[in-house]
Amino acid sequence: MDDIRTRFAPSPTGPLHIGGLRTALYSYALAKHDSGDFLLRIEDTDKKREVPGAKEKIQELLREFGLIWDGEVVIQSKRVEEGVYKKLAEKLVSEGHAFYCDCKARNAKEEGYSKDLRDPCRDKGKASGAIKLKVPDGEKIAFTDFVLEKEVFWDSSTVSDTTLLKSDGFPTYHLAVVIDDNDMGITHALRGHDWMPSTPIHLLVYKYLGYKLPEIGHLTDILDPEGGKLSKRKGSTSVEALLNEGYLPESILNFVMLLGWAPKDNRELFSLQEFVKAFDPKGFQKSNPVFNRDKLDWFNGHYIRQLAADELNSKLKAQNSKFAGLDKEKQFAISNLVRERINKLSDFDELAGFFFEERKPDIKLFGPKHREHLQSANEVLEKVENWEKEEIDQKLLTLIKDKEFKTGDFFMDLRVAICSSKITPPINDSVVILGKEETIRRIRKVLSSLTN
User: Fold this and answer.
1) Does residue 57 carry a catalytic annotation?
2) pLDDT, the chain, mean
3) What is the pLDDT of residues 401-439, one digit of tens each?
4) Does 302 fall in a domain?
5) Which Gene Ontology molecular function entries are recorded, alphabetically (predicted)?
6) Do 137 and 246 sit in the same domain of this protein?
7) Residue 111 pLDDT > 70, yes or no?
8) Domain's final residue, options 179, 204, 219
9) DSSP string of 57-99, one letter each residue
């Protein structure tokens, strides 16, 4: 078997979609499992939709996820300047497999066009305009999809004459993908299932140009939990948006690995290197996976808890400038306290923001006996000499027993007074970090507001 060569070929027309990352990952693993090459091509021929800086961002993100490509990046617009596509499109015309069309772009439903897939210009011998593929009638067009593991075929009479080269000299995807994959020596091409209807066009171009057909595989669609295909219009489907939400690259990658592929042993946790070693194209799934945010959170929580103390602390400092302003001992105490309690870095402010930013508690969060609870807690905590968790626990539990308080109600009122929230790390661990002076000051401040 020849060395495997795969490619990832994104368009710089917007943020990298989670489905795009999956295609890149599977293409990378398919090549690297057998020590092959993984190549990168930027398909930037749609200049009207190109987003400034998107080319660079795509490459930056691939590096962040460890998906390092081999060789130089192929840029389609540069190949346009070199005349690569124009030359081969004209060759197809000269050999009778394509034709010029200078008609204005029109809706396929107009003038009976949806009923007749043949362009009226195909037999007029025009010498200028866009170049379109001359699709034959009555032929079977077929290939074996290596992901679906079955033959897929079309009657050519159902395939429309399709533009290959626009009048401005830029190729459409249908021409460029074939020429570029051939010139790059691609042996296996993975792409989204939404490209399946275009495949017969590409198969004909391969045939007419005399190119060897690579193995082609169409991946499943990633579904939205609310139904339908996961859309680029939703910010959470952008890789960059997920990173900004506080998801680690390791967790996003591990989550994406299992969105359409399954190992033989049902294993869930993989590093990139472990995934490449275990990768088998037989593991591609045929049913569409659902983007399960809870599962992504689970992966992220796992990887957060694997971070070294220094690394987690550094990430949390980047997350919040006020936290970064605390002394190092207090930073590490806080980061260690939240390690087991956050599923993404962006949870940090909500869970632990009270440490470095005092917030006014909502009176509605207190229980019916909150005044008595706080007055008693204040009296006891003022007398604590050794401000450590063991002594604080002992003093407060004794208070609860002597006063016959309900333990849960007492600590909840204390939590709300000090943290302004019902959801925080354990309150006694928190007050140790917060310090005696600040803890008592906050309790007194709440008591004062209740009096006034």
Assistant:
1) no
2) 93
3) 999 999 999 999 999 999 999 999 999 999 999 999 999
4) no
5) ATP binding; glutamate-tRNA ligase activity; tRNA binding; zinc ion binding
6) no
7) no
8) 219
9) HHHHHHHHTT-PPSSPPEEHHHHHHTTHHHHHHHHHHHTTSEE
Residues 212, 273, single domain; the answer is no
Measured between alpha carbons, how far is residue 120 from residues 59, 104, 123, 134, 250 in Å?
43, 12, 7, 11, 53
Q: Are residues 228 and 215 in the same domain?
A: no
Q: What is the DSSP letter of 12?
A: S
Taking alpha carbons only, the member of 275, 248, 245, 250 closest to residue 263 is 275
pLDDT of residue 232: 57
Looking at the DSSP assignment, which residues form a beta bridge with residue 218? 191
Measured between alpha carbons, how far is 215 from 188 in angstroms, rounded to an integer? Answer: 5
Q: Is 101 annotated as a binding residue?
A: yes
The stretch 38-54 carries a mean pLDDT of 95
Is 419 marked within a binding site?
no
- 386/351 same-domain check: no
> CB atoms < 10 A from the CB of 228, how many?
9
- Check 57, 232, 330, 395 and give the catalytic one: 232
The answer to the question of whether 44 is labelled as a binding residue is no
Q: CATH number, domain at 272? A: 3.40.50.620
232 is in an annotated binding site: yes
Structure tokens at 342: 């956050």
Entry pTM: 0.90
Q: Which residue range(s) make up the domain with 67?
A: 5-76+222-283
Angle at 377 between CA 372 and CA 378, to 5 degrees: 100
